[in-house]
Amino acid sequence: MKTSAAIKAERVSKALGGLPVLDDVSLDVGPSEIHALVGLNGAGKTTLMRILLGMLTPDRGAAHLTGLPVSGAGAQVWSRVGQMLETPFAYPELTARENVYCSARLHGMDRDAAGSAAARALSDLGLEQYATRRAGTLSLGNRQRVGLAAALVHGPDVLVLDEPTNALDPRGVIVLRRLLQEACRDRGAAILVSSHHLDEVARMADRISVLHRGRIIGTLQPGTVDLERLFFDLVLQSDMHEQEQ
Ligand SMILES: Nc1ncnc2c1ncn2[C@@H]1O[C@H](COP(=O)(O)OP(=O)(O)OP(=O)(O)O)[C@@H](O)[C@H]1O
Q1: Contact 193, 35 (CB under 8 A)
Q2: Distance 89 CA to ligand 1 centre (A)
């Protein structure tokens, strides 16, 4: 069944290693929207993103991308999706340029278009001087930039990015924020991004959902003062509620 949200988790539950990791999680991202997912270590953010990207199957519930179920999605869907999970897409033996070019080709671009798109993505991410360096020899932050260039190279209108700024320097954070905002504005991209940095997502996101112990426990308004305190209030309330049960 087709849905109107570009990214949608519908009542998703998942256990891993016999323990519940996600419990009845629903979340959606519309076109031209940046939705941030925040939570403590181990909250389940990466697991939810893996399910949304079809890398894991939910025990219950369903994931949709571009309005279509992820299970059984074909090249037409994946060519519109860009993603970066914890380990950035980078073959260590390939150069930065080759990595980004491969991503463009894997997302269905022809050789000429992939070549020019890779050059543009490397320039956008400030990687020109590293273009011919093997990815395995780059610093962590520059490997993250390669991963982001690979996620963005084909101009996706659906983006799922897991902690995309954790290794970036302040300039890289500003560059990424601008690129994501442009993707929203220019091609109506729907973007789901996870982060531990509340001040950073507050500057980038239209909506913020809080995931705690595998459940969505509330939302935060990006413009609100003292988001950190509000975040911990939600977490504390949820823990107290659980203890009372
Ligand atoms: N393959 C696995 N087998 C067993 N447990 C797993 C597996 N993958 C993840 N988990 C567990 O699922 C829980 C959620 O992990 P997940 O990586 O989704 O959290 P996260 O919110 O992304 O955390 P972080 O912010 O630290 O990256 C953790 O308790 C983790 O140990």
Answers
A1: yes
A2: 19
As a whole number of angstroms, the distance between CA 107 and CA 84 comes to: 14
Buried b (16+ CB within 10 A) or exposed e, 139-178: eeebbbbbbbbbbbbbbbbbbbbbbbbbbbeeebbebbbe
Torsion sign, CA atoms 155, 160, 162, 163: positive
Give the chain's domains with CATH numbers: 15-80+156-245 (3.40.50.300), 89-155 (no CATH)
Q: Report the predicted TM-score, pTM, of the whole model to 2 decimal places.
A: 0.94
Residues 6+ apart with CB under 8 A from 44: 21, 22, 25, 211, 213, 214
Q: What are phi and psi of 24, to 5 degrees?
A: 60, 50
CA–CA distance, 195 with 222 (Å, rounded to integer): 13
Reported ipTM: the value is 0.97
CA 44 – ligand 1 centroid, Å: 6
Task: Give the strand order in the sheet containing 158-162.
Answer: 81-84, 158-162, 190-195, 33-38, 207-212, 215-220
Q: Which residues pair with 13 in a beta bridge?
A: 60
Ligand 1 contact, 16 CB (< 6 A): yes
For the Cβ of 212 lying below 6 angstroms from any atom of ligand 1, the answer is: no
Digit-coded pLDDT (tens) for 104-154? 999 999 999 999 999 999 999 999 999 999 999 999 999 999 999 999 999
